[in-house]
Amino acid sequence: MVVRLPSPYNGIIGRLGVRRIRAVPSTAQGMLKFQPATNRLGRPQGISMFINNCPSHSNKCIAPGFFKRFAFESMKINPLLGPSSTTLVKMGALEFKKAFKERQEWRLVTCMWLHAGVFHIFANMLGFAFIGFRLEKEFGYLRIGVLYVLSGIGGSILSSLFIKTTISVGASGALFGLLGAMLSELLTNWTIYANKFAALLTLILIILINIVFGFIPHVDNYAHIGGFFTGFFLGFVVLIRPQFKWINQKHVPPGYVAPTTRSKYKRYQCILLILSLIALLVGFIVSLILLYRGVDGNDYCSWCHYLTCIPTPLWTCSSRCSLSQLDKQVNMTCLPNGRFNSYTLEDPNDTIEMQKLCLELCS
């Protein structure tokens, strides 16, 4: 399932993994557009909360008397009951500038093991229960583990190509990779299944429902799509099964004669495996080259932003704050509600802190 947050928190967290706001500098009039961005799944929540230590920097924490330094940030900061975005960056959240400008590429992997909050963990665990257990039982933890991690990285890469100023944590890309692998596994092992078309239609329906949820605010379909196609191609490579004739001739009882075959796999399985390996290698290499060159996918695809949010009369796809800045002094106005406030920042280039302040101002 994909989760969506209501309008008062427009620009915070929310997809299957959950999303946070991103700050995209406008080209005119000193405008910052604060839009939702990715959040992917991750590390033990307790570690994040221990490092976050909400009572040390805020008097609006949730249950500080009971949880002490493990207290949650206020609902305005994180409605999923979790730490602040600053803490998630310290823990290894994905941010384009840090990952590819400051050469912290490890964030492509660590972001998958972070949680944005308690609700985030719950949503992702449901996904694992319905998808991951079945695949691991049939194919083993090693193959599914490799598929999961590479799909998550694929989702992170595609998201980074289109979202340049954001932080990102969560497992949505990896979970969609498992869905993609289920589809390719069904196709490459087509001959061994009964009720093939019913299984195929059911799986496609589940995938489409999850993709459609990505068109609402706070849901990043870039990571969904990147993870899905990575998992789809990997499924042809790591989830291939031998044909029955080959298995039977290896386990035929004495005195029985089984149909023989020299090939462990069917010809179409081998063709799909080779084509998938080529697609994966080309896709990863080209995408990484574009990222290191600082290419913004939105410059070459004017309609791609609709893949992650389609505006309707019921919602908008971004909440915006206009600002004027003089050294460390920032004057900020929330455009949706007209609220104004002035802030003094220790680091005038700290876009994460600006995201946080805009969110509070617009809440």
TrEMBL record:
Coiled-coil portions: none
Compartment(s) where it occurs, according to its Swiss-Prot or TrEMBL record: Membrane
E.C. no: 3.4.21.105
Record's keyword terms, sorted: Hydrolase, Membrane, Protease, Serine protease, Transmembrane, Transmembrane helix
Subcellular location, principal: membrane
A Pfam cross-reference name: Rhomboid
Xref: InterPro entries: Peptidase_S54_rhomboid-like, Peptidase_S54_rhomboid_dom, Rhomboid-like_sf
Transmembrane segments: 112-133, 145-163, 169-190, 197-216, 222-240, 270-292
Its job: Serine protease involved in intramembrane proteolysis.
Family from the record: Belongs to the peptidase S54 family.
Identification of the protein by name: RHOMBOID-like protein
